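Internal QA ticket QA-208
Title: Verify multi-chain structure generation after dependency bump
Assignee: T.L.

Test input:
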Amino acid sequence: MAETTKKIVQEIKIDLDKCIGCRACEVACSAYHAKPRYSSINPARSRIRVIFDDLNDVYVPIRAGDYTPAECTGRHTYTINEKEYKECSFCGVACPARDYFKEPDSGLPLKCDMCVSDPPLSEPMCVQVCTCDALTYVEREIEAGPEVSREEIEIGLESMANKYGWKRVIDTVARMSNKD
Ligand code: SF4
Ligand code: SF4
Ligand code: SF4
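Actual output:
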């Protein structure tokens, strides 16, 4: 019988009632991921974007998730408290349907990395700067699923290379992995 292993899942809880739309999280994320670190601020490079939901008059912080090469064909529309939300409102995916979560220079997708660094931060940057406590960092222990295989990684890279070309993918990965 396979041995059960545990892993820590990092999570950022979002409380819309506390978000005032100051966008400090966007600024902090883009500065933290600038090369060299803190050398520039450009919210277009941020892995968190604050969307204004004008139907409900609330700000909605969305963190960047995985990249998809194809936008959804069957989309969801959410109705909450009898108000309708736009189809992509709560989606954190970098996809061709919109401009969010794309590196402005290369067009390559951006993904939240929970501010991985060595030594680790006490909390991700966006959480640290959110003085309204709209963002809360938590860690949970869960049972580990199967690891991502080398083959799956290669399929993901090949998918991006088919869209952007290997040179842009390799150049961008090299630039993003440069030490500060
Ligand atoms: S820093 Fe906090 S309050 Fe400001 S926009 Fe981001 S989530 Fe909202
Ligand atoms: S942004 Fe999200 S919901 Fe909208 S088309 Fe792309 S993947 Fe689908
Ligand atoms: S956790 Fe880090 S990488 Fe993710 S959105 Fe927040 S600041 Fe950006």
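Spot checks passed. The pocket of iron/sulfur cluster (ligand 1) is lined by residues 19-25, 50, 59, 61, 129-130, 132, 134-135 (CB under 6 Å).
Status: verified.
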